[in-house]
Amino acid sequence: MNLVSLFAAESSGPIVHVAPGGVLEIGGITITNSILYGWFTSILLITLFIWVARVITVKPKGGVVQFVEIAVNFITNLVESAFDNVKIGRKYLPFFVTIFFIIVLNNWLGLMPFVGNGFTSGENPLLRPFTGDLNATLAMGVCTMIFVYAVSIKESGGLVPYFKHFFAGSPKNPIYLVSALLEMFTDLTRVLSLSLRLFLNVAIGEIIIGVFAYLGSSIAPLTALPFVMFEIFVGALQAYIFTILATMYLAIAVNHSGDHNDEDDLTADVPAETIELTAGSAHGRA
Prior knowledge:
Blueprint (H helix, E strand, L loop, with lengths): L2 H6 L13 E5 L2 E4 H23 L7 H20 L3 H6 L1 H17 L6 E6 L2 E4 L6 H23 L2 H6 L9 H15 L1 H27 L3 H50 L2 H14 L1
Antiparallel strand pairs: 1-2, 3-4
Helix pairs in contact: 2-5, 3-5, 3-10, 5-10, 6-9, 6-10, 9-10
């Protein structure tokens, strides 16, 4: 029997759940297995952060505390280096650190043996990765971009200064206008870019692990282990990519608005008489 007919058979083949399944209802609202596992991961993350905050000392420690310190320092350096004004980056650092840990922890915990078909509720798995649900990653992308837009407008000083960063020159110029409209459209697609990239990487990883575990049969742990190890790396990489993209989206808008403000401040500091004299002198030389 070849692989095509093997996977095409209805009674055999790897079981892969891509869509979330309902496991319980609260007040008439269906709670899916991905949401349930996302709650579990969030509680675990909050507990971890509270514990680390209490035991951390000036002298470096090993184990989990050291890992958290290294990750926080890494994201801190990443965010601070993205902003021209380091103080602005530090203000919003907690958001980027949180989003990084939420994604990486959900990605890694989704690789646990009890996730998926380990436990079932009716016909659906009881638990499945939160980041393996397109609804979840889309919600994360929407919340992230709302945060980016709100902060960008705030740091730019309003809607008009914020929209200035889309224009390379005067909006009266058709080329600059079209370019700005395309840039705005591209900006709106960032929600899909963030959510689809994360979802597809996690979902494809699940499928690959499921296929090779099925092919391994009785030695499934051995055949799936290399891909599980690879997905650990991919999970951290995707958390990093999501975080750095969100950081750069915010930094580009804030830094560009800062450049405009600096130009306005420089112009405001020069007396009108000096500007006229300089212009007249340049005209005379011409």
